[in-house]
């Protein structure tokens, strides 16, 4: 992963609201493209959510990240929006 991309995304996400971070995640749902920039984006996004104390276990198990479903923020937890 390119650290420059990660650092750029991390700085951008640090300045975002939680609502904006959730919207950013939901904007990636269904996107099957993958490259080093996407990897940096996804890692920076999850890292920022975790840094803020958000429970991301519905979409991230520590290894695998799923963009299969939209999520909502409920009591500081990401919950699958069915």
Write out the strand line-up for the largest beta sheet, numbering strands in chain order.
1-2
Helix content: 40-55%
* Low-confidence parts: none
Give the number of helices.
3
The radius of gyration over CA amounts to 12 Å
- The N- and C-terminal alpha carbons lie at a distance of 32 Å
In percent, how much strand structure appears in the residues? 5-15%
Mean pLDDT: 93
Total DSSP E strands: 2
Overall morphology: globular
Largest sheet: 2 strands, antiparallel
SSE order = HHHEE
Given helix and strand content, the structural type is mainly alpha
Quick structural summary:
This protein has helices spanning 3-14, 18-28, 36-51; strands at 71-74, 77-80. With 82 residues, the protein is mainly alpha-helical. A hairpin with a 2-residue loop joins strand 1 and strand 2.
Task: Please give the structural blueprint.
Elements lengths: L2 H12 L3 H11 L7 H16 L19 E4 L2 E4 L2
Antiparallel strand pairs: 1-2
Helix pairs in contact: 1-3
Describe the structure.
- The model has no long low-confidence stretch (mean pLDDT 93).
- This protein is mostly helical and 82 residues long.
- It has 3 helices and 2 strands; from the N terminus they run H-H-H-E-E.
- Helix 1 (3-14) runs parallel beside helix 3.
- The longest helix is centred in the middle third of the chain and has 16 residues, at 36-51.
Features of this protein?
mainly alpha; 82 residues
